[in-house]
Amino acid sequence: xxxxxxxxxxxxxxxxxxxxxxxxxxxxxxxxxxxxxxxxxxxxxxxxxxxxxxxxxxxxxxxxxxxxxxxxxxxxxxxxxxxxxxxxxxxx
Length: 92
Fold this sequence. Notes:
Elements: H1 3-9, E1 19-26, E2 32-39, E3 45-49, E4 52-53, H2 63-79, H3 87-91
Antiparallel strand pairs: 1-2, 2-3, 3-4
């Protein structure tokens, strides 16, 4: 999913607030492959998996399946591991 699509077209499905985006991985065309959308108003978190935001109502979400992925991303964020190649890495 493209960055401009996420920032300009998506909002929280519950309270219609703006979403904060944390990018985990992007492809070379800067499409977001993995990330986290979060709502500061209702505190809900929506993962982006394989470029698709998962924004189902709570009653249809499988939090047990989401938890390992979110924990992995949190670990990446804490350790500040770079998952997106730098421009110098792309030139090699």
